[in-house]
Design a protein that fits this description.
The protein is mainly β. 7% of the residues lie in helices and 49% in strands. This is WD domain.
Amino acid sequence: MSSSRAHQPLFVLKQHCSAVSTCALDGQGVFANFLLSGDVDGIVRLWDLELREALFSFHPVQTVRGSTKMVTEGSFSSSAGDGVLQVGFLSFTEAVADSAETTEVWFYTQCRNQQLYVWKIRLCDFDSGFGGEECGLETEKFVELLHTIDVPQHGFCPVPSVCSSPTKFLLAVPHDSNGIVSLWDVCLISRTPLSCEGLKVNCSRSFSAAGTLAKCGTIMCISFRDSTHIAVAFESGNVSLNSTCGLQLAIIRAFAETAVACVWSGAALLVTSAEGRLQCYTVVESTAETRDDAGSATVTNISLVLRWEVTLSKGLGCVALQRHLVVVGSWDHTLRLFDEGSGRVISILTFHNSTVNSVAMPPDKVAGCALFGYDVRRPRCCDGGTVSCSGKQSTNDQKDKDVYLFASAGGDYAVAVWRVDFKTLTALSRDTL
């Protein structure tokens, strides 16, 4: 499938000096135009996608170590433990900035040194020109380390997050053995109408996602469906579905080889393998009533039905799902777009010239109000509105349900931001058959 003008990114962000390993958009819509990215040298950048420039960058590991001199990119010796595995926003919808001139952004970074850091950045002046080449003492004026969480796994499973209330996030932290997952609460505390004193971070519970009947090996990936359900992919090829209370809902042996990634969204479960296989399951929920001496109770049963499967001989780097669109980043440098319902490829995007390491897709409420989500064909379709996505959707938003926004990060040091029309691409792909 050939590339065309419509298949090019909206724009590309190129300030990283090493492979970009992860990127994240704010799923709550508090900062709909912000993006976080992290690279293998340990640099994290906060981007304004409307301005298309970095507002801020720093080196989490060196900041924690308390570097005593100004450090610029390329002037330090990066170690293997400095690399960034995961970044994510912690955007509390009830949080209020101290003043109109100050914006506070909470987020976390997971590095290869088995540490997860929770931060707060205070952006005092977007027009100050602080673009983020500096990563030393100047950074400390703007960024504050709030908490550190040990990640007791020697593998490289990213720690996912999900918003469970307007003032609380959940983090799922993998352990090295027995499929143990720890759930950490990150809560906004001591909030007044004008300020927030800080965060409370604590481990609320731990449980084995592998259960007692299967030897699953290392946890490779964890995915939240919502604040009460998670999916876990294992080295053994097993994939388990669990409640965040610790109850195992289902477990299957998806592959004979390692299950690398999983995404659980609604009634769809995507799983990828180390051999380049991609499977899509339908999650079927049913209820049954049980009776015993203590009385009756309603039990929810979950089963998995394989819907479709494809194999990419060059291997898979990452996968993301939003409604009808599956985006797969491949080791052959391409992004493949699949129809979630049929498993058919509707487009192949060929912008990156290295492995695609990460794909971030915002939910509808963010994509509908993001000011950066326009293209040259309809340059004014997202004019007006506010950065926050708390308001009602406009008529244009309702008509644009087939339009998706996402970001891709690759080994070519670039982050690309895309806008695709699902209905148009589906029609074009049928015409080429």
